[in-house]
């Protein structure tokens, strides 16, 4: 009989850890419920991924969002039509067009056939399945609405892909302008500025000092000519080091904090996280998932650690007898208007419907904000490019004008 390791919370808010033997994960959850314990984490000791499984998960290539969404939709359709989970995974591992996704479904089939829970097997492929996907599959498996959870996740992925496509299309021209502006500026500094160096040296020998802009430009030109190759060599390891640090807990927390404070995009990142939280929590509550479990799952799907931590803190307060709106309002990360709607929904006992409606409203507002932000980016890029080129030209011509004036 499998042995499950669990972390649970008692009615008085204490954290309890232990082990128990049960035929299945669902039976283990029922045993904890009989003891008036709310499970926060439960793992089958035999189902814990080895380091080889984790390495295989990280080595697995990324899958296009479109292919992943289609695969999850097909899995939901098969399950809704009575096909067993193992047979559905086997079928998808043979017929999915994407080769990488076929390997993923084959790995899922092998893991589930060995007794590993589907959400645990999915979590072994972090490059393919996001935290939102893993959380929704875990909730669907435990709440007996796996088909609907897969359909919801596929819909979320389609919406995100559509949004990303629109942003990429709108940002293509501004990024092209930024690239061309950088190239033109580097060509001027590296190849054009040195041709004026002899003139500038003669001006200095005549006792005429160079303007500060010209001194800065010459220093930049000398640095790129002398150490430019070192900069190119050092860029790759520097970027790899930064990315590695950002993947750590401390780095991700700092990055999430910075995202919320960005001038234009910060509000969009913030409202996207709030929308995810409201949509996932509303979906879970609508399917009968207990509020504490729903908060735990939704906290792992918001994509922002600051908000996730605030949600988990609110779960602790709820276990002590408070309502949801009171602890959430204290964190300061949920907009006041949203908090007011959540408070009213709690009083009228239709929180699940209101949360999904809030998410729809926020998504429409995010779409407008993205359109406006993209419109601002293009003129900002043009201004920055113009300022950079103007600085080079002014730094080159200003000594000539001063010399002609003195003559």
Helix percent band: over 70%
Q: Describe the strand arrangement of the main beta sheet, using strand numbers.
A: 2-1-3
CATH homology-level superfamily of the domain at 173-407? Type II secretion system (T2SS), domain F
Q: What is the CATH topology assignment of the domain at 173-407?
A: Receptor-associated Protein
Please report which band the strand proportion falls in: under 5%, 5-15%, 15-25%, 25-35%, 35-45% or over 45%: 5-15%
Taking the sheet with the most strands, its summary is: 3 strands, antiparallel
Low-confidence stretches: 47-60
Oligomer: single chain
State the name of the first-level CATH class of the domain at 173-407: Mainly Alpha
Given helix and strand content, the structural type is mainly alpha
CATH architecture assignment of the domain at 173-407:
Up-down Bundle
Number of extended strands: 3
Element pattern in H and E: EEHEHHHHHHHHHHHHHHHH
Mean pLDDT value: 77
Q: DSSP helix count? A: 17
């Amino acid at each position: 009989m499998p042995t499950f390791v669990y972390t649970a919370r008692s009615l008085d808010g204490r954290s309890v850890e232990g082990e128990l033997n049960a035929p299945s994960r669902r039976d283990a959850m029922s045993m904890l419920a009989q003891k008036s314990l709310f499970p926060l984490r439960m793992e089958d000791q035999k189902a814990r991924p080895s380091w080889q499984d984790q390495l295989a998960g990280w080595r697995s290539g990324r899958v296009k969002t479109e292919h992943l969404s289609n695969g999850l939709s097909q899995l939901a359709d098969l399950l809704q039509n009575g096909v067993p989970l193992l047979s559905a995974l086997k079928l998808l591992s043979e017929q999915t067009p994407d080769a990488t996704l076929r390997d993923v479904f084959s790995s899922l089939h092998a893991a589930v056939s060995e007794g590993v829970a589907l959400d645990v097997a999915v979590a072994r492929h972090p490059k393919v399945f996001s935290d939102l996907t893993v959380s929704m599959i875990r909730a669907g498996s435990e709440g007996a609405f796996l088909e609907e959870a897969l359909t919801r996740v596929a819909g979320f992925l389609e919406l995100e892909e559509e949004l990303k496509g629109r942003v990429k299309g709108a940002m293509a021209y501004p990024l092209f302008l930024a690239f061309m502006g950088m190239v033109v500026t580097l060509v001027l500094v590296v190849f054009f500025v040195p041709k004026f160096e002899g003139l500038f040296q003669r001006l200095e020998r005549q006792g005429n000092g160079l303007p500060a802009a010209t001194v800065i430009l010459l220093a930049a030109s000398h640095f790129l000519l002398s150490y430019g190759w070192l900069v190119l060599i050092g860029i790759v390891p520097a970027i790899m080091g930064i990315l590695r640090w950002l993947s750590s807990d401390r780095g991700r927390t700092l990055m999430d904090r910075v995202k919320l404070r960005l001038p234009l995009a910060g509000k969009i990142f913030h409202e996207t996280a709030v929308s995810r939280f409201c949509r996932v929590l509303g979906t879970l509550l609508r399917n009968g998932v207990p509020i504490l479990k729903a908060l735990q799952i939704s906290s792992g799907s918001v994509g922002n650690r600051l908000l996730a931590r605030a949600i988990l803190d609110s779960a602790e307060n709820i276990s002590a007898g408070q309502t949801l709106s009171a602890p959430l309002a204290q964190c300061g990360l949920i907009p006041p208007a949203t908090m007011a709607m959540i408070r009213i929904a709690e009083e009228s006992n239709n929180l699940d419907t209101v949360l999904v409606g809030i998410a729809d409203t926020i998504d429409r507002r995010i779409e407008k904000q993205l359109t406006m932000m993209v419109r601002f980016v293009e003129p900002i890029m043009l201004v920055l490019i113009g300022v950079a080129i103007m600085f080079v030209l002014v730094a080159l011509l200003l000594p000539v004008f001063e010399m002609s004036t003195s003559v």
